[in-house]
Amino acid sequence: MASTETTTSSTTGKPDDDPTGPATAPDAEAPAGPAADSPAEAAAGATAELDTTAAAAGTTVSTGTPATAAGESRPAAGDLAGLEAGLDALDSTVVSRQPWLRTLLSKAFPPLIAIVIVLGLWQLAYHFQLKPHYLLPSPLDVFRSLQQKWLEGTLLSFVWTSVSRGALGFLASVAIGTVLGLIVARVKPVRAAIGPILSGLQSLPSVAWVPAAIIWFGLSDATIYAVVLLGAVPSIANGLVSGVDQISPLYLRAGRTVGATGLAGVRHVLLPAALPGYLAGLKQGWAFSWRSLMAAELIVNAPDLGTGLGQLLEQGRELQDMSWVLGAILLILIVGIGIELLIFAPIERRVLRSRGLLVKS
Questions:
Q1: Is the dihedral of CA 280, 245, 180, 229 positive or negative?
Q2: DSSP structure class, residue 28
Q3: Alpha carbon distance 182, 270 (integer Å)
Q4: Average pLDDT value for residue range 90-112
Q5: Which of 29, 149, 229, 248 has its CA 20 to 30 A from that of 314?
Q6: Per-residue CA distances from 132 to 125, 135, 140, 171, 315 (Å)
Q7: Which residues neighbour 18 within 8 Å (Cβ) at sequence distance 6 or greater?
Q8: Measured between alpha carbons, how far is 96 from 99 in angstroms, rounded to an integer?
Q9: Mean pLDDT over residues 273-290, rounded?
Q10: Among 131-140, 327-336, 349-358, where is mean pLDDT lowest?
């Protein structure tokens, strides 16, 4: 009896002497008793000790043992930091600055190719005489006509007269269209009454206003500016209304919560939130301003008004000089494209990039 008790006591005392004994090499001869640890419990205890040691050392150890409901281990702080850094790396975009020559070629080369193709087709039409030469001059003839105006010192004055008129009329249209758009967007009765009228005015050709403006103001600059305003204001107002309609109600409630109401709310909440749609309306408003200006200058022609590109185009028609006419058309096209590329395109890219809608690469 004494020998049996001694053996049992020494067998059950092995787990206390060797912590890794049950997990690696359990004693097959030890009887199952209440004081003996089961293999699963011993493995869980060993896993907990390994996790504690790894957390203290700042490393991660995978034991391959499934965690139980009571002994589930939490991820280490280093693991969470690494996970957050990985997610931030996925969201961020690596921006690499390209050489200026490559950037210039990537932006300028496609338009140059398109211009070369158009000039080639034009020259082919001239060569095969799809129209008589006096009706369809060659690109070289048009260039010579523009060169003659340049040497006379009148070409820049024509361009400046039209650009100054267009800029002044556009600025006045922005002031009026912005106020009108805000009123229509925020006051429901006004929107129900004026909204359809603005859409109808936007679709009305600008040249339709020229006879009425001549009757109202005579052959003067006021007639030209009236046509520009009537052509551009509806587009700007409708663009702002569209931008306001796309604002999330959460932004407006947040603005009212912090006290941004009235003019302060318009300045700090409404206009910044509606800026993408408002900018689209401004671009369209400039296009309508330029078109309306050319329509007015074609018809309103008086010696004391000065000569713009529209009057230059009309003079070419009166003289039956197609080189003059096509040169004026090219100047009108170049000025419209230049204003778009030099003013509106950079502003639009900046606004979209500030809102994360355009990635700089």
A1: positive
A2: T
A3: 9
A4: 65
A5: 229
A6: 10, 5, 16, 43, 21
A7: none
A8: 10
A9: 86
A10: 349-358
Contact between 16 and 36 (Cβ < 8 Å): no
3-state secondary structure (DSSP) of residue 260 = coil
Q: Distances in Å between the alpha carbon of 6 and those of 3, 18, 28? A: 5, 19, 18
DSSP 291-325: HHHHHHHHH---GGG---HHHHHHHHHHTT-HHHH
Q: DSSP secondary-structure letter at 18?
A: -
Residue 168 has pLDDT above 90, yes or no: yes
Which pair of structure tokens corresponds to residue 15? Answer: 């787990």
Half-sphere CA count of 2, side-chain side, radius 13 A? 0
Helix or strand or coil: residue 26?
coil
Nearest to 268 by CA among 278, 258, 277, 276: 258
* Token pair listed for 283: 């671009």
DSSP annotation of 270: I
Distance CA 261, CA 238 (A): 23
How many other C-beta atoms lie within 10 A of the C-beta of residue 213? 22
Rounded-to-integer distance, Cα 199 and Cα 321, Å? 39
Distance CA(259)–CA(293), nearest Å, equals: 43
> Rounded distance, CA 149 to CA 287, Å?
26
Distance CA 125, CA 87 (A): 59
Tokens of 281: 């309306």
How far CA 164 is from CA of 275, 289, 293, 313, in Å, comes to 26, 12, 11, 18
Q: Which two tokens stand for residue 95?
A: 């921006």
Instruction: Mark 50-89 as b/e (b = at least 16 C-beta within 10 Å).
Output: bbeebbeeeeeeeeeeeeeeeeeeeebeeeeeeeeeeeee
Angle between helices 221-245 and 155-186 (to 10 degrees): 40
Q: What is the pLDDT of residue 175?
A: 93
Average pLDDT of the chain is 74
